[in-house]
Amino acid sequence: MRRLALLALLLPLVAPAQPAFAQAAALSCPVRVDPAAFASEARLSTLAQQQEAFGPRPTGSAAHADYVDWLEDEMAAIPGLQFSSLPYAIDRWDSLGTGLTVGGTAVQVAAPVPFSSSTGAGGVSAPLVHLAAGTNITAANAAGKIVVRDLPWTNVPNLLFYPLGLGYSMYDPANTINLLGSESMEAPAAADADLKAAAAAGAVGVIEVSQLPHAQIQGMYAPYEGLPYSVPGAYVGADQGKQIKDALAAGQPVQAALTVNAAWTPTTTRTLLATLPGGSAQKIVVESHTDGMSPVWDNGPLTMIEMARYLSSLPVECRPRTVQFAFVTGHLYQHLTGPNVREGGAGQLAAQLDAEYDQGGVSSVVVLEHLGAKRYDAVARPNGLPGKQLVANPTLTELLMVPVSESTPLRELVKGHIQYRDVKRTAVLKGLSAADLTTVPHHCGFGGEGTPYNQHLLPVISPIASPKTLFSPQFGTEAIDLPAMRKASLAFTDVVLGLGPMAQSAVAGDVTAMRQQRASGTPGCA
Predict the structure, then answer these.
(1) What's the pLDDT at 150?
(2) Which of 271, 349, 350, 274 lies closest to 305, judged by CA?
(3) What is the annotated signal peptide range for this record (predicted)?
């Protein structure tokens, strides 16, 4: 009876699209993309090279604005699209120069920690102290000093991605993923906690030491909160970290001078919306962000261009629902509208879609990130050099994690197209955080841009990978496996095709009941 009651509630939402569904069936509309009608690997390579030519794109920078304008030009060449923008006023953080001397000797700096406190051109001077991992930064050990910290590496067991853990299904036909193994990558996001603790302890600066060489982390951009830190911070590579620690090993006080010269500049950034009308005004929203350091970080927009081109070539009867392409800002400025909510521009769009959903204005959201991310292995450096280096794996891509909201038909749709397109090393997941049955949704984390849409109780499909190259602009288009990217692009265009005629009750699954629970007072995600 409960299912019948829910179906009765949903019928008004799907009814306007039913004539288009019937016409689509009569026209024998495609259920999958004809690969000959979709972008070739060469075309995707050209787009990725054009994207890379803009260089690093921090939120609101000139390069970021130029890239969004370029995306609009590319989309404007596709017939039938309608355009609008969501503007945001921000204070952009700009690095004007960094420097470091230790005991009077210059040490090469790879990058400032984004949103660091500015020292001005003169820098700050203080004794160095190395506080190893596991040692808290306190006033007793850090006040008045420049703290040296080693960046940690995360370790995630592969078992989490199988049905015994967070998984729904795994597609790894060659059995390349060790069920009992784990994945690890360096975690520069840890600098957030270090800089906050250092400020609270009265330290005057922080130096974060990577295990990777300078050449692989130069320009690294993380964490990207968008909120100012109260102390300056900088990254150094493994060789420079050894240079600093060797200076400290003598046991004598070592004076250092750290310069992080930066400025905050008022500017405007925008989310670009390109809408392709369909047989119903109810929207499928396809989303990716536009601010990033490298092509692999945000190559979702490139797939979106070609998805839009393909869908616009179909008769409107084969597009039962409207498709809106959202090129979102604020991914590298995660507190876009204030200090208390961490979600960037995706969160603001999610709130708008949440408000439209119960009126039948929104069907679902598909978020595209890191498609075709090539796998890099961290291996020992040659000739006894300190730390590790990243080396491209000649045959493997990174695991593509695809959290899908609480709908079995939706998960089966994704699973089927992933397998049909042979998108290897892909896990369809229930979420990327542990289940909490006291909240709606039960899995609050989706690992990236999909998280705010999921937390706003919208039906969401959110592919994302965790490439070790992610935060560094030193890895360009060579970090994308183009055949894998094309397969994934085809698969998720197939998914959008499948969402067009799918009954909204099937798209939504348990999201419908969860929205009712939320309205009755069940708490959402913190």
Answers:
(1) 98
(2) 274
(3) 1-22
Compute the distance between CA of residue 201 and CA of residue 137 in angstroms, rounded to an integer: 7
DSSP annotation of 63 reads H
Of 81, 84, 119, 82, nearest to 98 (Cα)?
119
According to DSSP, residue 113 is labeled: P
Strand-pair partners of 284: 323, 364
Q: Exposure of 299 by Cβ count < 10 A (0-12 exposed, 13-18 middle, 19+ buried)?
A: buried
What would the pLDDT profile of 344-360 be if each residue is shown by its tens digit? 999 999 999 999 999 99
Token pair listed for 225:
């909160």
**Hey, what long-range contacts does 11-18 have (CB within 8 A, 24 or more apart)?**
12/360, 13/282, 13/360, 13/504, 14/282, 14/503, 14/504, 14/505, 16/280, 16/281, 16/282, 16/360, 17/279, 17/280, 17/282, 17/320, 17/321
Q: Which CA distances in Å does 523 have to 154, 164, 319, 442? A: 30, 26, 36, 10
CA–CA separation, 343 and 455 (whole Å): 11
pLDDT per position as a tens digit, 421-445: 999 999 999 999 999 999 999 999 9
Q: Is the Cβ–Cβ distance between 325 and 398 less than 8 Å?
A: no
Report how far apart, in Å, the C-alpha atoms of 437 and of each of 97, 400, 440, 485 are: 48, 26, 7, 35
Its pTM stands at 0.94
Q: Please report where in the chains the tokens 């899995």 appear, as a residue.
A: 443
Rounded Cα–Cα distance for residues 420 and 418 (Å):
6
Q: For residue 22, what is the DSSP state?
A: H
CA distance 311 to 75: 12
Of 361, 363, 364, 367, nearest to 345 (Cα)? 367
Distance CA 100, CA 124 (A): 10
Q: What is the Cα–Cα distance from 494 to 416, expressed in whole angstroms?
A: 10
Among candidates 42, 57, 51, 499, which has minimal Cα distance to 300? Answer: 51
Supply the DSSP string of 289-312, one letter for each residue.
Answer: E---SSTTTT-HHHHHHHHHHHHH
Q: Which of 331, 300, 295, 279 is nearest to 61 (CA)?
A: 331
Enter the tokens of residue 53.
């030519």
Integer Cα distance of 409 and 282 in angstroms: 19
d(CA 360, CA 326): 19
C-alpha span between 169 and 464 (Å, rounded): 15
Average pLDDT estimate for 217-234:
97
DSSP 231: S
Burial group, residue 233, by CB count within 10 angstroms (0-12, 13-18, 19+) = buried
Contact of 230 with 202, CB cutoff 8 Å: no
CA 405, 411, 414 angle in degrees (round to 5)?
120
* Count of other CB atoms within 10 angstroms of residue 78: 18
List the one residue out of 457, 437, 450 whose CA is nearest residue 515.
457
